[in-house]
Amino acid sequence: MPVDPPGLHNVVQLGESLFSGSEPDGPDGFASIARLGVRTIVSVDGARPNVDLAHQEGMRYVHIPFGYDGVPRQAGLALARLVRETTEPIYVHCHHGRHRGPAAAAIVWIASGQAGQSEALEVLETAGTGTEYSGLWRDVRNYACPSPETELPELLETAPVESLAAGMANIDRHWDDLKRCRDAQWQAPNEHPDLSPAQESLQLREAFYEAGRVLPAGRFDGAFRARLQEAESFAAEIETALQQSNHEAARRAISNLERCCKQCHEAYRN
Questions:
Q1: pLDDT tens across 230-250, in order?
Q2: What residue spans of the chain are helical by DSSP H?
Q3: Between 146 and which of 102, 150, 193, 197 could a Cys-Cys bridge form, CB atoms 3.0 to 4.6 Å apart?
Q4: Is 217 helix (H, G, I), strand (E, B) or coil?
């Protein structure tokens, strides 16, 4: 598929009836998925799926969230059950459609019996899955279909998600929207006239604060908590700079936040 349909990005087709790509962006994205003949959307992202928009297009959601460090066994079993129960085309997505989504779609392709490990790994290459996410590559490479007698987990439209994972997914969205505003010279982008740079910076700061607030006691070390606080402070700098119409200061702060997040991902996520 050479050109992404409206509301979708990084779309990759696997075989005749399986697609991988980004989270659908509003009604246009869901309409584009429906036009592919899809009746089941699979999200492996931590954010809550927009079940209502899917239903409006006559599609159901299956929510199998997991992180960047690999595909857990239960997620692999759920993807196998999806294959056994679904005969119509499937669309698998994470947030951007580059890392977790392609890995899950590759496993679905293996579980369907239509591809082997080598073809599945080519999907990750085509999608641009980062080699730094070694767990995703490992689990696609090593995936084995469960035996017929294996008990498979129930499929849910909205699965329970660890509060930190949901918080990080929320941060990711505000971060993307804030960068869109930056690239539009700190104005609402033409393609997203509803965005406000000041509001997105506020929501980003609050999202970092909330992630730190709900962090399970004893789950992460002090260094991780310090990184969250540093990220929150940089988000606050962006917010203040935009309130003062100091766009150069906002650009410096967003660069510092990007560096802070990258270092944290290298230490804890990848």
A1: 999 999 999 999 999 999 999
A2: 26-35, 51-56, 73-85, 100-111, 117-127, 134-141, 163-183, 197-213, 222-243, 247-264
A3: 150
A4: coil
Q: End-to-end CA distance of the chain, in Å?
A: 29
Q: What structural domains does the chain harbor?
A: 12-141 (3.90.190.10), 163-269 (1.20.120)
CA–CA distances in Å: residue 78 to residues 41, 108, 223:
14, 10, 34
24-81 per-position pLDDT tens digit: 999 999 999 999 999 999 999 988 899 999 999 999 999 999 888 789 999 999 999 9
d(CA 92, CA 124): 13
